[in-house]
Specification:
CATH class of the domain at 128-275: Alpha Beta
CATH topology of the domain at 128-275: Phosphorylase Kinase, domain 1
Strand order of the largest sheet: 7-8-9-10-12-11
CATH superfamily of the domain at 128-275: Phosphorylase Kinase, domain 1
Largest sheet: 6 strands, antiparallel
């Protein structure tokens, strides 16, 4: 499907190496969407500064139909939208912006990557402005309908006519837009001055901005919900407030949740404001290693294990707070200087949450998640799978 990716109808695994030996961005999706209803969506795929190709898409295969859908034709993933229940969770308050008031209890001290056991080359922290895209565009091959039950290709060229960047899905009629909603110089929430686009993720564009209220620090703005329903958006933001309480040296900081009026459409959009993490994702680090003949050279096991140690520190902190990460993979961790950080918190959920849609990535997600849901064990599975992807010479389908 799409660019030639195939997914096994028996085990659900996808190729982890794209044509040319590059580790591919396997689609992220809902493992058990049947647990919730509604059309709201929160969280989202994407990356730090890796560019538009480092975002992830969301799939919508339903656990209840897994057995009946085992055919010779694979299903293409849906880009970026997840169904979740918002019934009875409307909010009348428009003051949904919050600031973190969490403590640093349990925060691990900053240690040299590798815990002193192995030497890992540092990744210098770049000038954030260098990461801003000059011409933010989404390639046609990555344009799909955002409805969780559709996922049809949209915005594709026909003959000599280029594909539209805005319009309506010809299959379900759902509107789509791949045009950035924010532009350089825009002020969000009276505080965050937009510098430009960093990447395109599952819920739209990811922006670099300057926090004019706090020492002109660099921050990242990420779309939180794509809906015209303000009550649904406020409810979704309220459900994610706990992310601002998470403080750990190996986890990106969440600073704020804000609303911003889109002057072009008149809709009120929600954004999550987070720490800017400059560096390279594990995906980029793995893809940069090449043999003399141009093939990908797997990372040394000891280097991958050094990353694993850092990842387990972060996941252990989440688990101690009864939270699950659910979507650890090469796209979602960045090495900045001598430290590894988890950069995408869109899939984090409470351990006792039996209603919300479950995020996961085909090829990384533990096979039992579709039947019994995520757990500490399934989180550990994603780490082990990521280490395997980095250290084994995966070619084609695995």
């Amino acid at each position: 499907m799409g660019g030639g990716e195939l997914y096994c109808d028996t085990c659900g695994l996808a190729p982890v190496v794209a044509a040319g030996g590059l580790i591919g961005s396997t689609p992220t999706g809902v493992a058990v969407p049947g647990r919730g209803t509604g059309t709201g969506s929160v969280g989202g795929g994407g990356s730090g500064v890796g560019g538009p190709d480092s975002g992830s898409s969301r799939s919508s295969s339903r656990a209840s139909s897994r057995a009946s859908s085992r055919s010779s034709t694979s299903r293409r993933s849906v880009s970026g939208r997840l169904s979740r229940s918002l019934s009875g969770a409307s909010s009348t308050s428009r003051s949904v912006s919050v600031r973190s008031s969490g403590t640093s209890t349990g925060q691990s001290a900053r240690n040299r990557l590798g815990a002193g056991l192995v030497s890992i080359p540092e990744v210098p922290r770049p000038d954030p402005r260098v990461a801003v895209m000059d011409n933010p565009e989404v390639p046609e091959r990555k344009r799909f309908c955002s409805r969780s039950d559709c996922g049809a290709p949209v915005g594709r060229s026909r003959g000599e006519r280029p594909g539209r960047t805005e319009g309506f899905c010809t299959k379900c009629g759902h509107p789509y837009s791949f045009v950035p909603k924010l532009r350089g110089g825009d002020i969000v929430h009276g505080q965050y001055e937009v510098a430009g686009c960093l990447a395109h993720g599952g819920l739209g564009w990811i922006y670099l901005a300057v926090d004019r209220a706090v020492s002109d620090r660099w921050v990242v703005l990420k779309g939180l919900l794509d809906t015209g329903d303000q009550d649904a958006m406020a409810a979704a933001i309220s459900e994610r407030r706990f992310l601002a309480e998470i403080e750990h040296s190996n986890i990106v900081r969440i600073y704020n949740f804000v609303e911003h009026l889109d002057q072009r459409t008149g809709s009120m959009d929600g954004y999550i404001v987070m720490e800017y993490v400059g560096g390279k994702s594990l995906k980029e680090i793995a893809n940069d290693r090449r043999t003399p003949d141009g093939r990908r050279d797997p990372l040394p096991v000891e280097q991958a294990c050094a990353y694993g140690i850092e990842a387990l520190e972060a996941l252990g902190h989440l688990h101690s707070r009864n939270l699950l990460y659910c979507d650890f993979k090469v796209d979602n961790a960045i090495q900045s200087e001598d430290q590894l950080k988890l950069i995408d918190m869109g899939a984090v959920r409470r351990m006792d949450d039996d209603e919300s849609a479950i995020y996961g990535t085909v090829g990384y997600q533990a096979p039992e998640v579709a039947e019994v849901g995520p757990s500490v064990a399934s989180d550990l599975y994603t780490v082990a799978r990521t280490l395997a992807v980095m250290t084994f010479d995966f070619q084609g389908y695995t």
